[in-house]
Amino acid sequence: MPGSVVGTAGPLYDESYAGEASPDAALGTTLDEAVDVTQERGTATRFETVMFRGYDADDELVGLVVVEHRGRGWFRGRSETCDRT
Predict the structure, then answer these.
(1) What is the pTM of this model?
(2) Mean pLDDT of the chain
(3) Long-range pairs, 4-10, Cβ under 8 A, ≥24
(4) Which tens digits make up the pLDDT trace of 34-66?
């Protein structure tokens, strides 16, 4: 299958910075091009996480973003976008 996946790490966590109030706010506009976005909560790490997956009209994955709750709010962790060209 042609295409590629591009991954990026989120910003470095800084305890002096207050994060966003909710997982949706931390996600921001990252998956705005998606037709459908799902959420999956997890606690397998030292902090609570929410994994957002965005899908296009053909139900193909277009992106994945993990946000993390780290004491002072929600922060975007890693993100991956899929290019089907």
Answers:
(1) 0.78
(2) 83
(3) 4/82, 4/83, 5/80, 5/81, 5/82, 5/83, 6/80, 6/81, 6/83, 7/78, 7/79, 7/80, 8/78, 8/79, 8/80, 9/77, 9/78, 10/68, 10/75, 10/76, 10/77, 10/78, 10/79
(4) 999 999 999 777 889 999 999 999 999 999 999
3-state secondary structure of 2: coil
| One-letter identity of residue 53 | R
Query: Bridge partners of 74?
Result: 20, 69
Domain boundaries, the chain: 4-83
Q: How far does Cα 13 stand from its chain's mean position? A: 15
C-alpha dist (Å) from residue 30 to 8, 44, 46: 12, 24, 24
